[in-house]
Design brief:
Layout: H1 3-12, H2 16-37, H3 42-55, H4 66-88, H5 97-114, H6 117-128, H7 133-140, H8 144-162
Helix pairs in contact: 1-2, 2-3, 2-4, 3-4, 5-8, 6-8, 7-8
């Protein structure tokens, strides 16, 4: 059980201080996650996800770590915002978000499954879990250069899977 899970358990039992501490711990991670993808909306999206966590506290079933649950919510808010922006103006094909926008959730899962396990792990940690290059390098006991290379190559494979030109780097 993670520290976040312990705090969540206390929060669910009525300890509002534990809830404040939990959300305070998650806030910078969420902010970083959004800032890498949609810097102009990072604060607003972080706030919306924290509100969703408060409002949906009773819906969490505990089948996965609480942080994973929160980042699943964050990803849904991110995808929603990408689609809203895409409707307002074409998405920048040079953006890493283009891959996710173009494939949608089902297509992205298929493309991710086609990646080698090492590429898939690097992409998942970087883009979906919001970990930085140095954090991933420490987690996987690899150099930062290796992580950057894996992420870059994985994005290339995802683009090939979608049929997007490699000139869009």
């Amino acid at each position: 059980m993670t520290a976040e899970d312990v705090l969540f358990s206390k929060w669910r039992q009525g300890d509002s201080a534990a809830g404040a501490q939990l959300l305070g711990r998650l806030r910078p991670q969420l902010r970083s996650y959004f800032a890498r993808r949609l810097p102009d909306q990072a604060d607003d999206l972080t706030h919306e996800v924290l509100i969703a966590c408060i409002e949906g506290r009773e819906r969490f079933r505990g089948e996965a770590p609480y942080a994973a649950y929160v980042f699943t919510i964050a990803r849904r808010y991110l995808v929603r915002e990408i689609y809203v922006q895409a409707r307002q103006r074409p998405i920048d094909e040079h953006s890493p978000l283009f891959v996710e926008h173009r494939l949608g959730e089902r297509g992205l899962a298929e493309a991710m499954a086609a990646l080698s396990p090492s590429y898939r792990q690097a992409v998942r940690l970087y883009f979906f879990d919001g970990a930085s290059g140095p954090e991933i390098a420490r987690t996987l006991c690899l150099s930062e250069g290796t992580i950057r290379s894996r992420v870059r190559r994985a994005l290339g494979e995802l683009r090939r899977h979608m049929g997007v030109s490699q000139q869009l780097r």
